[in-house]
């Protein structure tokens, strides 16, 4: 048995090498190396399909003629039955008959007719490959005919039937579906390694996939029963992860004496890699499974999920990380209309708990999509293995999408383990990557726990770098990780166990009272003239026109507008920003700001603010008020006396102009509420204080000072909770501080560096002294040589 397997591998390598050499021999002067696969991969698919359909070709043509004669509209099912496959070709041509065609445009027309004869599923693959776009190039270079000849070379056999000599002896063995799939995957691997820049986007190294498959299946190997299992990858690329997962599950089932039916489901946005994935399944004889692979530029897993109602037993993926999903976000409704129930859930008392990351990186959105497809009512539940980079562990503040996703996962106790992989193990990135393993049927010893494994130093170097990939996981490395994962819970230098709450924290907002002094001095009042914003521009306009602005604004408006538009008459849209930070108009002022500057109502409002402030100055004087509360009360009394009703925004503008912060001033009172006679009061840390005035008691709340606002992270496992932390860490330094309870949020982050950091040991004083003495010896006499010839 072992010998036969070795022969099969030798045959597969021979065929792969042969096809690889076709690319070098025929396409070298026609395409750059990175584009060889645009021709070779679809040609490989065509040759295999052509060979598979050879026996039933005439039967299919007869069935086609019969269906056409009887005006049967829906022919696909009947033609598949005639072919005995999930695909067929109804053209009169085969590759063998095309080989006999003349070169040039006639061959081009016949070849296109041959392609047009394939079934719709094969047509889709060819379309996604953009193979028809290559035909004219191949014809012009006079290589199309040679490619057909090369793929029909009698030295290789891509047929499921053996090639026999005249005596009936097997000359070339048959290539079964699995063998053909292996050949195709080998070609994909070589092309991906050749195109190192793109490989990491679509191709996950097989050593990593093997590890992920084992982590996903081995913990439940003895629970797998005979039956049907569904596997899913929402970013399936060329399908390599699904293939390895399927093989691993099938092997485990056979080892345990079980018969399983495995169905693969995948979605991929890149048309070419989708075509490769679907073609790979067709070549393996898994035509029905190929129907469950969907893809194309309009088939994003995030904005166009094709399996909304499906639940899966096992899910595996390497989603894009560090890649924007802004287009998907806008397709899903954007800020105002986003309502996808996968990403807005009820959790932690919040009926609209948002699992929406920043649009600059959507990797965790793919994980949420998988978690929403878990089986919740089966004994085995669902298991997930997925690759993320380091930002998925800690990016996002408490209450933001990334942190919310980690919170949702950990508080539902779905995360089993995270394994840190070696650096430079992927093709196009050298950054840190991690395998997350999740399940909704955790074994008893994992409940409420998370295992972290640092496998970053377990690898073997490659003899030759493949892009940025300079190492791989050996079988021994994979086994070492699996042994730690499956072993009893115990901490080692490379493995640590945590409670799920160890990663959680409260983010509290620490407030301190605003303390102001006030003074109605002339310069402060005059600044109100430009209170509506764009102070610098308003000051220039005022300096030029003065009081004429109020008397003749309609007349002056065209002249001001022309000045604001600048000499070029073009707008500088990039300058549109903070309206309060205006600059003199050297370039055109953006329309939004210009519109406000040309609104006479804003100038009139600011003039009114000056008049009201001067009115208050007449009664209150221009002395300093050490207590802003007193100033505010007297100011409002003056306004009431003169029948002036000010809006809150107008009072705020005046107070802002004539007041300044001073830590010696009393706190500014925001709210003062009288307590009933027997109403109890419990002092706390929430910024509500008791004030006693004679027999009356008042609850007092202060205005917070935004400049002094701070935040603290309090571990969820802090003894005594937030209050104990606050009394110990904050009040000794800021006795007037309080906690803004309504702003408190829960966050989660997982810091691998903190848990596995190994500080470099400090050198001893003796070692440092020895180095200094050595340097002194090396430089002894050097100074004398440099300045020796210079006279004193």
TrEMBL record:
Domain of life: Bacteria
SUPFAM superfamilies: S-adenosyl-L-methionine-dependent methyltransferases
Region (Disordered): 568-589
PROSITE patterns from the UniProt entry: N6_MTASE
Alphabetical list of InterPro entries matching this protein: D12N6_MeTrfase_N, DNA_Adenine_Mtase, DNA_methylase_A-5, DNA_methylase_N6_adenine_CS, SAM-dependent_MTases_sf
Record's keyword terms, sorted: Methyltransferase, Restriction system, S-adenosyl-L-methionine, Transferase
Annotated Gene3D superfamilies: Vaccinia Virus protein VP39 (3.40.50.150)
A biological process term (GO) from this entry: DNA restriction-modification system
Domain DNA methylase adenine-specific: 177-488
Enzyme class: transferase
Domain N6 adenine-specific DNA methyltransferase N-terminal per the UniProt entry, residue ranges: 16-151
Family indicated by similarity: Belongs to the N(4)/N(6)-methyltransferase family.
Protein name: site-specific DNA-methyltransferase (adenine-specific)
């Amino acid at each position: 048995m072992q010998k036969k397997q070795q022969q099969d591998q030798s045959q597969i390598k021979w065929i792969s090498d042969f096809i690889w050499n076709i690319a070098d021999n025929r396409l070298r002067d026609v395409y750059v190396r990175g584009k060889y696969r645009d021709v070779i991969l679809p040609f490989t698919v065509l040759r295999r399909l052509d060979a598979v359909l050879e026996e039933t070709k005439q039967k299919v043509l007869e069935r086609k003629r019969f269906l056409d004669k009887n005006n049967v509209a829906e022919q696909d099912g009947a033609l598949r039955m005639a072919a005995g496959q999930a695909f067929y070709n109804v053209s009169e041509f085969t590759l063998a008959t095309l080989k006999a065609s003349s070169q040039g445009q006639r061959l081009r027309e016949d070849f296109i007719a041959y392609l047009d004869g394939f079934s719709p599923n094969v047509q889709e693959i060819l379309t996604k490959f953009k193979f028809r776009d290559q035909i004219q190039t191949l014809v012009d270079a006079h290589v199309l005919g040679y490619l057909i000849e090369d793929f029909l070379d009698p030295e290789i056999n891509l047929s499921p039937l053996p090639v026999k000599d005249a005596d009936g002896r097997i000359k070339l063995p048959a290539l079964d579906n699995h063998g053909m799939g292996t050949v195709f995957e080998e070609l994909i691997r070589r092309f991906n390694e050749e195109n190192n820049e793109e490989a990491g986007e679509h191709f996950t190294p097989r050593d990593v996939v093997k590890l992920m498959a084992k982590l996903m299946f081995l913990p439940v190997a003895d629970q797998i029963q005979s039956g049907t299992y569904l596997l899913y990858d929402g970013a399936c690329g060329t399908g390599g992860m699904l293939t390895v997962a399927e093989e691993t599950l099938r092997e485990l089932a056979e080892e345990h004496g079980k018969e399983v039916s495995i169905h693969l489901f995948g979605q991929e946005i890149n048309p070419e890699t989708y075509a490769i994935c679907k073609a790979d399944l067709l070549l393996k004889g898994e035509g029905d499974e190929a129907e469950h692979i969907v893809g194309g530029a309009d088939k994003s897993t995030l904005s166009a999920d094709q399996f909304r109602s499906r639940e899966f037993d096992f899910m595996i993926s390497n989603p894009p990380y560090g890649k924007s999903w802004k287009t998907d976000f806008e397709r899903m409704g954007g800020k105002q209309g986003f309502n996808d129930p996968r990403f807005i859930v009820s959790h932690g008392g919040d009926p609209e708990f948002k699992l929406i990351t920043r649009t600059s990186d959507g990797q965790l959105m793919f994980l949420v999509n998988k978690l929403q497809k878990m089986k919740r009512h089966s004994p085995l539940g669902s298991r997930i293995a997925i690759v993320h980079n380091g930002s998925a562990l800690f990016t996002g503040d408490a209450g933001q999408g990334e942190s919310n996703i980690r919170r949702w996962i950990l508080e539902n106790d779905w995360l089993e383990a995270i394994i840190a992989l070696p650096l430079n193990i992927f093709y196009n990135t050298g950054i840190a990557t991690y395998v997350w393993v999740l399940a909704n049927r955790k074994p008893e010893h994992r409940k409420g726990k998370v295992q972290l494994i640092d496998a970053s130093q377990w690898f073997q170097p490659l003899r030759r770098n493949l892009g940025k990939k300079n190492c791989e996981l050996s079988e021994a490395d994979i086994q070492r990780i699996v042994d730690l994962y499956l072993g009893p819970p115990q901490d080692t230098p490379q493995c640590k166990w945590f409670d799920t709450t160890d990663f959680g924290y409260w983010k509290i907002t620490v407030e301190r009272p605003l303390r102001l002094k006030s003074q109605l001095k002339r310069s402060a009042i005059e600044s109100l003239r430009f209170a509506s914003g764009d102070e610098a521009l308003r000051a220039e306009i005022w300096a030029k026109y003065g009081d004429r602005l109020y008397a003749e604004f309609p007349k002056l408006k065209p002249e001001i507008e022309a000045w604001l538009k600048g000499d070029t008459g073009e707008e500088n849209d990039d300058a549109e920003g903070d309206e309060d930070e205006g600059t003199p108009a050297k370039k055109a002022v953006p329309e939004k700001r210009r519109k406000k500057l040309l609104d006479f109502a804003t100038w009139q409002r600011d003039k009114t603010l000056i008049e009201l402030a001067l009115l208050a100055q007449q009664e209150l004087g221009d002395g300093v008020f050490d207590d802003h509360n007193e100033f505010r009360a007297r100011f409002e009394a003056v306004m009431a006396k003169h029948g002036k009703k000010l809006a809150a925004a107008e009072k705020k503008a005046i107070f802002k102009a004539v007041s300044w912060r001073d830590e010696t001033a009393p706190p500014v009172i925001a709210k003062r509420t009288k307590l009933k006679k027997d109403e109890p009061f419990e002092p706390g840390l929430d910024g509500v204080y008791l004030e006693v005035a004679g027999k009356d008691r008042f609850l007092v709340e202060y205005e917070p000072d935004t400049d002094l606002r701070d935040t603290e992270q309090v571990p969820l496992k802090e003894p005594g909770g937030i209050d104990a932390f606050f009394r110990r860490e904050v009040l000794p330094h800021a006795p007037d501080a309080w906690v803004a309870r309504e702003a408190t949020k829960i966050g989660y982050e997982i810091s691998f560096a903190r848990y596995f950091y190994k500080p470099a040991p400090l050198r001893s004083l003796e070692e440092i002294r020895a180095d200094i003495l050595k340097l002194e010896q090396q430089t002894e006499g050097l100074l004398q040589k440099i300045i020796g010839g210079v006279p004193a």
